[in-house]
Amino acid sequence: MDGRRAALAGAEQTRAAAGQEAKPLSALRGPLHGLTVLDLSRVLAGPWASQILGDLGAEVWKIERPETGDDTRLWGPPFMQGPDGPSDAAYYLCANRNKRSVAIDFSTPEGATLVRRLAERADIVVENFKTGALARYGLDYASLSADNPGLIYCSVTGFGQTGPYASRGGYDFLIQGMSGLMSVTGRPDDEPGAGPIKVGLPVSDLFTGLYAATAILAALHHRTATGEGQHIDCALLDSQVAVLVNQGMNHIVGGLTPGRLGNSHPNVVPYREFQTADGHVLVACGNDGQFRNLCDLLNLPDLAADPRFRDNVGRLRDRRELEATLGAAIRQWTSGDFFAAMEARGVPGGPINRIDQILADPQVAARGLLKRMERSDGTPVTVIGYPSQLSRTPATYRIAPQSLGASTAEVLALLGVDEAERAALRDKGIIRDGR
């Protein structure tokens, strides 16, 4: 047994002797333990990517402006209540756990120098400034990789580093519209409330953050094999176009220009919401057998036997007549009785929950999605955790979303910056360190 394995075994024995469940250190630290992320991003797409890396065990240094910090700290109400009253907005809390807040103004020469020194110690940089904006501070990929060739540098922008739109700023709402997403989201023109509508969450930001995290992990694997770092160019528009999925392929393969269908599916019928006697239910029949089971529980044998509806091609073609018949039958049921009947017959379906209902759902509780954390001042923070459950190296919850500059002194100490130097920088407004 080599030294590393012996150390792990010894740690497990120590915990066992203390009455704790013996878990390997990798499970306590996360699979990315030992990696350092310098996070220059703010708002959502970049912070979402860096939070994923933090959840998986990476050390994340979040660089923020000393005066106000990340923009989303002020995106409220609601605001978290701390010992001294309202503090950070809920929006900030959703994407900034497992990070150390380091408040440095890198628009100043002294601040930029500090951040460049931190970059020399980092494995990964995540930034979401306008294309070319960080070059003026020597914080672009070319400058930082010259001193750290193994650096993985991920740029998240609205439109990418190239192309005619590269210089534009990109926001989730704009990307939802430009990408075609809003053209297929909303009620069709012949229904009340018709018109394009954005998704109720900033999905273009979130998709981009997920793609960025995936690309970073791929670059890490490449670096392990070759020692080479690289520049990753992630764009909100690219990411949203990539997840047009079946709607995009409907156009490429069939020449179709998809439109708004409300809650109906462009390719599968019946697959939509229906009104019940006391609310609404979702019905999602993915195959012919499920459709026949639905007809059976609704006592509609003639519908199941109708040649027009035997397969999805016919159901899609004559969807209006079919859905009208199904809707009239479903309206006779209460939602609870219909859910139970669908489950008994193997017909996929479910409710349309409010946010408060799903967060209190027993399935969410059983999966442990809500995690209680605590700030250094004792303020409790409940967060929605990392969703994938790794059997040997699960996500960890080590640092609650920090107050602005809470870790500045700790991180700068790694550079040998002592209290006297910090005081001078603090007096100039270059840093904020919680004092």
From TrEMBL:
InterPro entries: CoA-transferase_III_domain, CoA-Trfase_fam_III, CoA-Trfase_III_dom3_sf, CoA-Trfase_III_dom_1_sf. It holds the Pfam family CoA_transf_3. Keywords: Plasmid, Transferase. It comes from Methylobacterium aquaticum. One of its GO terms (molecular function) is CoA-transferase activity. Gene3D superfamilies: Crotonobetainyl-coa:carnitine coa-transferase, domain 1, formyl-coa transferase, domain 3. This is CoA-transferase. Residues 1-22 are annotated as: Disordered.
